[in-house]
UniProtKB/TrEMBL annotation:
Signal peptide: none annotated. One of its GO terms (molecular function) is oxidoreductase activity. It comes from the Eukaryota. This is NmrA-like domain-containing protein. PANTHER family: NMRA-LIKE DOMAIN-CONTAINING PROTEIN-RELATED, NMRA-LIKE FAMILY PROTEIN. Keywords: NADP, Oxidoreductase. InterPro entries: NAD(P)-bd_dom_sf, NmrA/Isoflavone_reductase-like.
Amino acid sequence: MLHTVGIAGITGNVGAPTTKSLIQAAGEGKINLIIFHRASTDLTGLSTATNKRSENVEFRVLEFADPPAKIAEVVRGVNIFISAVGFPALPSEPNLVDGLALSPDLVTYIPSVYSTTWTERDFGDPRLGAVLAFLHGGWERAREKGVGVTAVYTGVFELFWFQLGFVGAPIKENIIWANEKQMQNRVPITAIEHLAQALTRIACADPQSIKNKEYSVVPFWPTGNELKELYTKINGQQAQVKEFTPADREAQMADAADFGPAKAGYWEKWESGVWGYEAEGRISDREYGGPGLEEIARSFA
């Protein structure tokens, strides 16, 4: 008997490719899939994609702000719930979890916290901890309610690294923002497509086997120096290195509105070389067969 996977946040950077991958898995008879969406969501593309795979795919309207009892009814039958919502929806995720906790069918919940690992010290920092509490609201509520959690850790998404400059290195500017230690140390970069595939593999497993497990999805580990060489090669001129200073860190920590403390947290881990992806018990998904880092970087140049 097939188990049932539900996903919400189906139009975002993570949700769109993950939903597509899950639809394929449902079409192959690996899972039943319920695609949750808001009443206002345009489903044209997804409806077309599921025309020939409708037997195992269902669409349901879900509003995170609804009363928990109503949410529980909407998610009835779901064994694994994947949240892929973006930042604007995160404040409503604890309420979603209140609803999930009332469903007798739910086994585990994958929260929309696809990021690096964080320590107790990180959570205890007044500024970084406040940002992390915002990001982990649903996760923490799940722990309070006794809902199973399946955590999936990632590196910096390729979009955030090469285009948006989340850690200060958009490839078009041909600048690496790093200090001497960071130039020598590795930094984790995750292709979103790899995450989508990994989430599908995880979701296709027996729900009880993934309950309260932790996974990491990091296919690329370049050093700062290797990134400098890559930028130089792609841009056809020597990449520049901009020193990341204590003053830069303080400026980031003060910029809570733009998640600056989280950015500073990544820089600190890069400088220390300590990330935590391979802690005891964490399962590393290495089944990535997509483009290499150079091909990915070129797509943003």
